[in-house]
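Batch job 17 of 40 flagged for manual review because the log was empty.
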Amino acid sequence: MNGADGDPIEYASFDPKTGANGGDGADEWRSAATRAADAAAASTGDGWPLSLSGVTESLVTTRGPNGRWNLAPLGLFADSSDSGTSTETVDSVVTAKTWGRTRTRRNFEREGTGWVQFSTDPVAFVDAALSIVELDEPVLVDAAAWVRVDVERVESGDEDGTEWVRWRLRPTAGAVRRTRVPRFARAPIAVVEASVAASRLDAPGYDAARGRAVIARAGETVRRTGDERTVRAFDRLLEHAGLDDPSADGGDR
């Protein structure tokens, strides 16, 4: 996938000679570059690579009917039971919701699996939330950890005219590629919040004016505190959503 200026957006690893080959196992879907990265990684076995609490924002790839991997955001809910009570966990119930007839939902229904990934790249998150991203393999090159999950549909409903489905995610394989000293940075968090708001602007029942206000506030934070990659992510958000830059005239029109 290319940016507006034609340069490649570097968030995925590609190896056309050894990429997806039609197998079902975790190893068979990874390119040589990805396998090399995972060779030195710490396996997570059939568990999650971190303690989950509340809602954790992740990215998920699911295999489409064309054999390519669709990239999308996925909020992970850490539940102590099927009741949905939030708790910190590495091995209890983790669920996620899909909204509408998305590619992720259709691929979940057809394949029953997905690859959950933990990445802090704001460009990857924006593109996944607001455009169609298809990859040659399921694992992002910059993912700090990944988990292959089996999914089970456990509940469905309707909210403001949009059908949702709740899925239980069961890890079957995974790896932690690297660990970092944790830090808080306001700009990437603002990009995530703006991406969520932008993805809902056309949803029935959503307060679009409130969503645009969220995006405008996020833009102020990104312009003031973000690095080059984060600013680029916010610019792509505006492009995908067809919005003017709210900082251009002091407010979103």
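Reviewer: the log was empty due to a logging misconfiguration, but the result itself is present. The CA atoms of residues 126 and 158 lie 26 Å apart. Unflagging and moving on to job 18.
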